[in-house]
Specification:
The complex is a heterodimer. By secondary structure, chain A is an all-alpha fold. Chain A has four helices and no strands. Chain A has a single domain, classed as Non-ribosomal Peptide Synthetase Peptidyl Carrier Protein, Chain A, CATH 1.10.1200.10. The longest helix of chain A has 15 residues. In chain B, 27% of the residues lie in helices and 26% in strands. The chains are: A mainly alpha, B alpha/beta.
Amino acid sequence: MEEKILAILEEHCEEALQYTGDNMMEDGVIDSFTVINLVSDLEDEFDIEIDAKYVVAENFKNKEAIIALVRRLVEE
Amino acid sequence: MQKNHGSAFDRVIVIGYGKVTGEVLRFVCGRQEEYGYRTEFIEHEVHPFSVTEKICSENHIPFARITDKQELAGIFLQIEEKTLIVSASNNFIFPGALMEKENITVINFHNALLPDYAGRNAPTWVIYNGEEETGITWHYVTGGVDEGDIIIQKHCGIGPDTKAYELTERLMDLASEAFRECFGDVIKECAAARPQSLDPARRMFRSREVPAGGVFAMTDTPEHIYRLLRSVDYGKNDIFPPICTQIDGRKAEILRYRRISPDRRRDEEGTVCLPLADGDLLKLKYRYTDQ
């Protein structure tokens, strides 16, 4: 699962894979449009619904947070 | 800071939310020494991924969050200095009395080629109407909505698979580019603006209007259905309610959609594939809503 998520992330923002901070948005690594694309592809890939309540900066602060979010939703 | 190195304004206030707002704010901050004005920022609508507060903090720019319309109008009306207000992706409607103040100039970014597609959610309507081209407009703000003189416009194409959020992103990039081009003339009050040719019968799109009423029939052409779905697709920003239809006599809402090639077709529960004219399929994932 992690590999697939990272592949999707790489497709939309290669820089995010190297990022080691804790706020990709504020640090200008991704923007709100990258998040929209990511969410769309993650939903398709894992056949999950990422509700709008989960689409917040905290869940997209770095690649680890994105992986944790998807893992949680897949296991629900 | 020395005053007025060419700026006709003492203050520049940026108001808005989203990507273009951040780009505009950075640019305005970066030019204040050169032109000799003070920059301020007002956040009227809170955006979950806003970076404007950080930009203000880094550049020592006053940041104010004012979500109440009347309070904001009151603040604007009290301004006495010569002020340029830059409305960059902003839904606050400036009061008519503000437009009458000689010390206030307001410019606004509109996400379509005015005078066409005035009002709200222009990217939605250009996609839904099957337009092949759209663009952006920076214009002076007057008492009427989206009616002021045009400062600059830029065009872009709309592809056959373009979704509303993709077009919005492209338009915001164009808006930033156009702003950088015209700002020098605007700040010196020498921009060559041209009046709009306003048709009295022109349509003004309202925020609550939804293409096709947000409903389609399974007998509609797949191309129409695809256009409708793309036109309201702003990701998780619930600008529009889910698009609905009837499947097997039951009410259903569309969860996701995608153009796929026929070899990727999988018959799964809760999905349906419709044939597009070019041989691809429009895959719809839905859920029933009548239970």
